[in-house]
Amino acid sequence: MHAVKDVDLLRPAAELPPVTLSEFGGVRFLHLGSIWVQGAMRITKPQTIELDYVQRMLASLLWLPVGGWAGGSAVQLGLGAGAITRFTCQQLRVPTTVVEINRQVIRVNANYFHLSECAEVVRGDAADWLAQAEARSVRLLHVDLYDHEAAAPVLDSINFYAACRHVLEAGGVMSVNLFGRHASFEQSIGHIAAAFGPDQVWSLRPTREGNTVVVAGRGVEVPDRDELTRRADLIEARFGPLGLPARKWLRMVRPYTPPAPTGSGLPALVVAA
User: By C-alpha distance, which of 156, 171, 162 is closest to 196?
Assistant: First the structure.
């Protein structure tokens, strides 16, 4: 079992949903006390990225220069079934921290989802961890924070995304899963744009299940189409067998376009230096 580091201001355990598992077609699924899938792993191929939206979260690699996968560090906020943590630890071989508030999720990952021994596991609230994290210390940040109802992101404010930007190094990249029956995509991506700057935000088209991945960078040099194609070719050549169809992502990516003014408009930008 992993050594688990606790951070302060944890919510009481009674508020956290129970963790359940199911299996179908050779795939193991993680649930938080409901039918909603919170993560998945193909049992015989644990390194394969099984879920479409998780694959798309790793489109963050497109915004790193060739060779930028190595070095730096990775953080995952919300463990799920650990697919991204397994990938950054074992495929990218970069130091990885995962922050998860539910101790049961951590235990189930260690026992049933091949939680990587190389990952630092922090049990705590993602916002608390961000408040204590070192500035400009993370190259890849993946955010997937949902509760058992999967109605909207648990943390989705401008201040939260500003804290995410604060921990990214120059040229660092964040990807966020936006999904929910009551979630407003335009509001969420507007919050991200307010924190990162509208020219540093991109989205991929939604999956059939309704997940939309948004990528945001801290001072990323925006590559032209030829460079993006080159990066996609290299990513797919190396990681395509693990479920990363990087060339396909290029057909999905759209830069953020602010909505037309309606009188209220977007909140004022809070991008920090």
Answer: 162
